[in-house]
Every structure is written in C-alpha cells, then in structure tokens.
Amino acid sequence: MDGLHGKKVMVTAGPTREHIDPVRFLTNASTGKMGFAIAASLRNRGSEVVLVTGPVSIPEPDGVEIIKIVSAEEMYQVCSSRFLQMDMFIGTAAVADYTPKNPAALKIKKKPENFNLEFVRTKDIIRELAQIKGSRIVVGFAAETHDHHRFALEKLRYKNLDLIVVNDVFGKATGFAADTNQVTIIDKSEGVTEFPLLSKEETAEKIVSYLEEYIICRWDTPANILGR
Ligand code: C5P
To answer: Whole-prediction pTM value?
Structure first.
C-alpha cells in the first residue's frame, strides 16, 4: 500500500482575475492559503504535485510544480491539458463564475453617465474534468455561508465529485482571509466527517490524511493494483 506516495496530484488555488480592461478586474478574497497548504502536505507524503494558482501573495511551497494563471479560462486550459496524466485533482481555487463578455483592449475612460457591463459564464473547471475522470479522484471545495450540507451535497452530485470539503465562509475564523478553518468532508455516499477549528496547515494535514486513507481503500487493494 503506497497511499499518496508517487501519486500525481493537481491542486488549484487562489482566486482568478477577470479583466474588464488592462487595468481593472473582477476577483474575490481568496488568499490561496488552503490550496498551498494542501500542496505542501501532499509533497511531504511523496506525491508529485502540480499547483495551478491564481494571483496570490503568499510564499510558494518548494518541491511542487507551480503554474501561474490569471483568468478562469487560463486555469481551465492548464488543468484540462494536464488532467489525464493525474491520479487526483483537488479544486481549492475560488474560480470566478462570470467574466466580462467584451473586455476592452484599452483602459475604459469615465463618462458622465452610468456604465453597464455584460458578463458571461466561465467554464466550471472541476465539473468539466470530473466528466472524464475515469478512476481518478476529484475533490471539490465548497465555501458556503448557510445551508452548508445541502449545498455541498448538491455540488458533489452536480459536479460528479468523489468528495467535497465544505467550509463556512461566514464565520470570522473560517473566512477566506482567516488563518484558521473548520471543514467537513462529505463523500458520495453522504458519509460526513467533521473536523474541529484548526490552522489552515493543520486542516490541510487532516484533509490529506483523509485522502490517504480514502485512496488506500479505493485504489490500493490487490485487485486494483493489478488493474491500474
Ligand atoms: O464556486 P463553487 O462553489 O461552485 O465551487 C465549488 C468547487 O468547484 C470548488 O472546488 C471550485 O474550485 C470548483 N470550481 C471550478 N470552476 C468554476 C467554479 C468552481 O473548478 N468555474
């Protein structure tokens, strides 16, 4: 049983930026801390990690391949071009759901009248990848302010995920910019595992330990080792 050792894992992290013009963009408050901590924990257990990250200002973990992107479309292009070589995909990124329909090539000048902008949907990266996942494990995150369990289960099913990690972004101690987090993992059969309030590093360790057990059960049985 080799758990996560030698497994190829892609982790997405941070926010995306959707440009309105060359100097303005739509983004969110994701810091990338959770995804970076998961990438470091996986590396410590011998996984080969590809970390695809939006613009963040935290230290980069050593010993992982880092691919920097800006927009949701760029994140999609990178992830989809490498996904089939991976054993597991973990989507911690806070990907923009909408992007400006016609971003301006030059800086938009202000005018006296109001300004409307039309947005179009971005691709749901994890959902697109999970449609072609085969035996790969796909893990999503759900940042919710209310009805956590219900929304997370809906996402798990709609996006064809194996596991979803839910956290409450309403609480001060668990929001995007906090150093602590309190997560619950829900699996496809609605098994629920709750973790206490911990630092993001400790939370990453718990999540990765859970994944290690999960893949040992799912993949590293004698029949599967022969079959993979
Ligand atoms: O934004 P939402 O709550 O739907 O995100 C849940 C999961 O889906 C997260 O793992 C996130 O990284 C992923 N996601 C994605 N592409 C999007 C939106 C979300 O991969 N466009």
So the answer is: 0.94
CB of 125 within 8 A of CB of 89? no
**CATH class assigned to 8-108+118-227:** alpha beta
Dist CA 165 CA 182 (whole Å): 10
Write the residue with the smallest CA distance to atom 17 of ligand 1. 124
Q: Is the CB of 141 under 6 A from ligand 1?
A: yes
Q: Whose CA is nearest to atom 2 of ligand 1?
A: 142
Ligand 1 centre from 223 Cα, in Å? 33
DSSP code of 83? G
The CB of 130 under 6 Å from ligand 1? The reply is no
State residue 154 phi and psi, 5-degree precision. Answer: -60, -45
Tens of pLDDT, residues 157-194: 999 999 999 988 777 777 777 888 899 999 988 899 99
Ligand 1 in reach of 140 Cβ (< 6 A):
yes
Is 28 in the active site?
yes
Check: CB of residue 73 under 8 Å from CB of residue 32.
Answer: no
pLDDT band per the 50, 70, 90 thresholds, residue 222:
low
Query: How open is the CA angle 170-97-60, to the nearest 5 degrees?
Result: 70
CA dist 104 and 19 (Å) reads 8
